Amino acid sequence: MAQKSNKQKNNKARAFSSATKSEPKTNRSTTESQRELMRLQREREAREKKVRTGVTIGIVAVVVAGILAGLIWLIPALAAKKAAGSDPYALSIGSATAAVTVDIYQDFMCPYCGQFDRAQASDLAALVNAGTVKVDFHIMAFLDDSSNGTKYSTRAANAFVAVAQREPSKALAFNTALYQNQPPEGSNGLTDTEIADRARQAGVSDALASTFASMQNADFVSKSNQAAFDAGVKSTPTVKINGAAFKGDLYTAGTIKDAVAKAGPK
Amino acid sequence: MSGLLERAHTVRQSNVWIYTTMMLSACVSLLASFVLSVDAIELAKNPAANLACNINATISCGTVGISWQAHLLGFPNAYLGLMAEPVVITIAVASLAKVRFPRGFMLAAQVIYTLGLIFAYWLFYQAMFVIGALCPWCLLVTLSTTLVFASLTHVNLRDNNLFLPERAHEAARAGLRMGIDVLIVVLWLAAVVALVFAKYGLALFA
After folding, report:
1. Which of these, A31, A115, A140, A252, is most buried using a 10 Å CB contact count?
2. Which of B193, B200, B206 sits opposite A66 (nearest CB)?
3. H helices within chain A, ranges in order?
4. What is the pLDDT of residue A2?
C-alpha cells in the first residue's frame, strides 16, 4: 500500500518535470491539477532543502572533525618527536615507522655501556628485527683520555658510524662485537686492526672495514659527542624510550623489552 | 547564515563554478604531471638523483619514480596526464565560453576520465601499500584527478550526457541539488587523508 502511494507520487513528480520542460508558463486560469502539481513541487523543494541543510552540516562536520582530530593528535606527537629526535647525529637502526624509539647514548670505552649491551643486546636485536623498535645511537667519545693517548673511544666510534651509515643491517652485531671482551678503561683499547677484524666477524664488508683506519668520521664523532652533552646527557649509558629517560635497571636482561612493550602500540 | 548557504548552493550549481573548478583542477594536474615527467627523465639519466621532493624515507618521489609501477605502460605514467589534462582544460574553457558539446562526446570524456581515475587510485594504492613511499606530486595528481572527475560527473549527470533512463536521471539531479556529490567527495578525500596518516603517522614528518 505504502509502496503504491510512493509510486503515484513519483509519477506525478515526473509528469510535472516533463511539463515544465515542454510547456512554457501560461496565464490561463490555473486548473485544479496544475495547483496540485505546484503544491507537489513546493513540497519537494522543501524536502530537498531539508536534506541539503543536513548534507551541508554533514560536510562542515566532517571537515571540522578532521582538522580537530589532526591537530589534537599531531601537535603533541610532533612536540614529543621534536623533544626526542632533535639530534642530527643520531644513528638510526631499524624501521623508520617502528612504534617505539630507543635512544642509547654510549661510549665504547665505558664499562657500564658494555654491561648494558651484554644484558640487552639480544632483546634489542629481536625487537629491531620485528620492526617494533628503532634504535637511535648517540655516539660519545668523552673517555678518549682513558686509553693511554690512543683515543680508543673515537677510533671505535669512527668505525661504528661508518657501519651504521653504510651497512646499517650489521650495526647491532658490530656494536655487540665491540663490547664482547671489552678492553678495560685505562688500557690502550683495541688496535685499528682488531676493530676491523671484529667488524668483519659481525658481517661488515671488507671494503668498508678497510676504511676505518683513515678516520673519516672523527669530526662526526666529536660533534655527536658535543650534541649529546648539549642535550643534557651527563653519563653513559643513557637510555630513552620514546624520548623519556629510562630510569629502571639497565643491566638486567628483559627490562628494556618490558619497557618497550609498555610504550609500544596498544 | 542560511541565506549565505543557499547562495553558496546556487553558485555551486552554476556553469561558471563547475567549469572553473574543472579548469583549475586540470591545470594543477597538468602541472604535477609535467614535474613528474621531468623528474622521470632525470631519474632515467641517474636513478640516484636527489630530487627536491625526496623529503624523507616516506615522502620520496625518487623511490616511487624508479618503481615498475611508475612505468606501467613502458613509459612514465605522467605522460598520460600530459596528454589527457589539456583536453579537459579545453573542454572546460570552451564550456565557460558557452560551447555545448554533443552528449556522445561528453560520454566518451567521462569514460576515459573514469579510467584515468581508476589508474590514479591504483597508483595511490601501490605507493601506499606496495612501494611504501608517497610522492607529493603524485598525491597532487590523485587529488586534482578526483576534483576533475567530480566536476565532470556533475555536468554529465546534470545534462544527462550519460544516457541514463529518465528516472535515474531525475534521481541523480535531485542528488546534485541536495549536494550529495560534495558530501561523497569530502568523505572520500577525508578517508584518503585518514588512511595516509593511519599508515604512516609521524614517519611523514621524519
Report:
1. A140
2. B193
3. 2-22, 32-84, 111-129, 152-166, 171-179, 192-201, 206-209, 218-230, 255-263
4. 42
